[in-house]
From TrEMBL, chain A:
Classification via Pfam families: FAD_binding_5 (PF00941)
Protein name in UniProt: Molybdopterin dehydrogenase
SUPFAM superfamilies on file: CO dehydrogenase flavoprotein C-terminal domain-like (SSF55447), FAD-binding/transporter-associated domain-like (SSF56176)
Keywords carried by this UniProt record: FAD, Flavoprotein
Record Gene3D superfamilies: 3.30.465.10, CO dehydrogenase flavoprotein, C-terminal domain, Uridine Diphospho-n-acetylenolpyruvylglucosamine Reductase, domain 2
InterPro entries with a match to the protein in the record: CO_DH_flav_C, CO_DH_flav_C_dom_sf, Diverse_Substr_Oxidored, FAD-bd_PCMH, FAD-bd_PCMH-like_sf, FAD-bd_PCMH_sub1, FAD-bd_PCMH_sub2, Mopterin_DH_FAD-bd
Domain called FAD-binding PCMH-type: residue spans: 1-225
Entries under PANTHER family matching the protein: ALDEHYDE OXIDOREDUCTASE FAD-BINDING SUBUNIT PAOB (PTHR42659:SF5), XANTHINE DEHYDROGENASE SUBUNIT C-RELATED (PTHR42659)
Automatic annotation (TrEMBL), chain B:
Annotated ranges, domain 2Fe-2S ferredoxin-type: 47-123
Gene Ontology CC annotation, any one: periplasmic space
Organism: Pseudooceanicola atlanticus
Pfam families named in the record: Fer2 (PF00111), Fer2_2 (PF01799)
Signal peptide region: none
SUPFAM superfamilies: 2Fe-2S ferredoxin-like, CO dehydrogenase ISP C-domain like
Protein's recorded name: Aldehyde oxidoreductase
GO molecular function per UniProt: 2 iron, 2 sulfur cluster binding; metal ion binding; oxidoreductase activity, acting on the aldehyde or oxo group of donors
């Protein structure tokens, strides 16, 4: 790990001001992903701004009947919150499907959204990776590479990494909104839909956040009701990243919403695919996965996604 | 509390010496790799923090990079908390901070100024074991023992977490009381790996404690 200086500001405006003025600064919340990456020297901040002193660790009710979640609310606390369990069960299910008890106790809401890919070529610093080292190439797209876990849609010839979060898939299906404070101290809102960028030619650019911009809250609109479920398919029963995951909200009349995890650089959802829900899993996936460019190793994900949704529709 | 361990010459010390030699090499490499334009730290690279470990405030001055795990083991000589993978995957370093279990390897000591930390040394001692420690002995919940401190830390918290109604991946009804089932315990223990494969007996030990104080 590279040496760094450290500070723990007491309010968000101080935190973003420092991030703006100190070159090479990085926010640290739970640290479960950032510290791991710092040990690999994939991240090497010269200055660490610990945001754990900012408050921002409460869940409050909003005027429209929704919830406003402080960015530092832990994954455990969020999954166990009575309102989340009752009104947004797909979110509890998604969080509980990820990581371990120890990690969920430390990982935060904002940090979960901003966690980085677990693509093995991103982690192996001996391999090329356009995300880690722009212009070096994509190790996952070389002859004989292992791409079983990697993306099938929304990817590019520069990068086929997936976004690893389960929580973000539920946030996407619930149309969550991210609230931030910018380096100049202004607040703004970004729909979760627009938070993560597709790789294109610049896979090193992962989010719509500007340098030094801090997530302060994540807002959930009023509950959408329906039957909610999150189904995660993985190589072992616990503590593994998704091959495919499906977040589903299904209303009594058969309409609803579907988002996928494990297949794309961001939680994957399309309004025109949602509209196909009354027509069944195959109809949804023919739209949702239209234009997919899987590798030979991960083409199975297309079939797996459809069958997972079909199984869920049978239960819902 | 255990006395500090005196590091005499033995295999572990020899390995540490070898590692130090390797470190010198890698530091040279790092220095040459650093470009003049790379951002540099803008303040002290060490911090003084007070960790309240097993009820006793302990002030230490550490490099900002020191993990909570290394602070416990190398600075406070509390070697009961084990280093396995050092990347949050094995759970050997599990200890509790302000009553919640975390991976001590994925947290910095500097982040825990004033926090209450409980390690395996604070839970019980050979002549005065915690019920979970006694149950692990009784049920033969380990072979080599390396993962055991982390297993015991997690095990104690798993019972509390189920009773507190924190849902897991295998929980059925999210609004009902959570039952203390084998499936619940296994799922919640998935962050603690046992290379010897003592899982069945670990489950027995946890079940025994849960039933004893039901």
């Amino acid at each position: 790990m590279r040496a760094f200086s450290y500070e723990k500001p007491a309010n968000p405006s101080e935190a973003v001001a420092r991030a703006a003025e100190v070159e090479g600064a990085k926010f640290l919340a739970g640290g479960t992903n950032l510290l791991d990456l710092m040990k690999h020297e994939i991240e090497a901040p010269a200055h660490v701004i610990d945001v754990n002193g900012l408050g921002l660790d409460e869940v409050t009710e909003t005027e429209d009947g929704g919830l406003r979640i402080g960015t530092l609310v832990t994954n455990t606390a969020l999954s166990a919150h009575p309102r989340i369990r009752r009104d947004y069960p797909v979110l509890t299910r998604a969080i509980a499907a990820g990581a371990t008890g120890q990690l969920r106790n430390k990982a935060t809401t904002g940090g979960n959204l901003l966690q980085r890919t677990r693509c093995p070529y991103f982690f192996d610093t001996n391999m090329p990776c356009n995300k880690r080292s722009p212009g070096s190439g994509c190790g996952a797209l070389t002859e004989g590479a292992f791409s079983r876990q990697l993306g099938v849609i929304g990817t590019s010839s520069s990068c086929i990494a997936t976004h690893p979060s389960d929580m973000a898939v539920a946030m996407r299906v619930l149309d969550a909104i991210v609230e931030t404070v910018t380096p100049s101290g202004m607040t703004r809102e970004i729909a979760v839909e627009d938070l993560h960028l597709l790789p294109g030619d610049t896979p090193e650019r992962e989010t719509a956040l500007m340098p030094g911009e801090l997530i302060t809250h994540v807002r959930l609109p009023a509950p959408v009701g329906g039957t909610q479920a999150y189904h995660k398919v993985r190589d072992r029963a616990s503590y593994a990243f998704a091959l495919v995951s499906v977040a589903l909200v299904r209303q009594a009349d058969g309409t609803g919403r579907v988002a996928l995890g494990g297949v794309a650089p961001k939680p994957w959802r399309r309004a025109d695919a949602d509209a196909q829900l009354p027509n069944g899993a195959a109809a949804v996936m023919s739209v949702l996965l239209d234009g997919a460019t899987p590798t030979e190793e991960n083409a199975f994900k297309l079939t797996l996604a459809e069958r997972t949704l079909a199984a869920m529709l049978k239960e819902a | 509390m255990s006395p500090p361990i005196g590091f005499t010459l033995r295999r572990r010390t020899l390995l540490a010496g070898t590692a130090a030699a390797a470190l010198t090499h890698s530091m040279t490499r790092d220095a040459s790799a650093q470009t003049a334009e790379a951002p540099q730290p803008v303040g002290p690279q060490t911090s003084t923090v007070t960790l309240v470990v097993n009820g006793t405030p302990r002030e230490i001055t550490v490099d900002n990079r020191v993990s909570l795990l290394d602070a416990l083991r190398e600075h406070l000589k509390l070697t009961g908390t084990k280093k396995g993978c050092d990347h949050g995957q094995c759970g050997a370093c599990t200890c509790t901070v302000n009553g919640e279990r975390i991976n001590a390897c994925l947290s910095l000591a500097v982040m825990h100024d004033g926090d209450e930390i409980e390690t395996i040394e604070g839970i019980g001692q050979p002549d005065n074991m915690d019920p979970m420690q006694a149950a692990f002995v009784e049920q033969d919940g380990f072979q080599c023992g390396y993962c055991t401190p982390g297993q015991i830390q997690s095990a104690r918290k798993v019972i509390e977490e189920i009773r507190a109604g924190i849902p897991s991946h295998v929980t059925g009804d999210l609004t009902a009381e959570i039952a203390m089932t084998d499936a619940e315990i296994r799922e919640r223990m998935s962050g603690n790996i046992c290379r010897c494969g003592a899982y069945a007996n670990i489950l027995s030990a946890i079940t025994q404690v849960a039933e004893e104080n039901a």
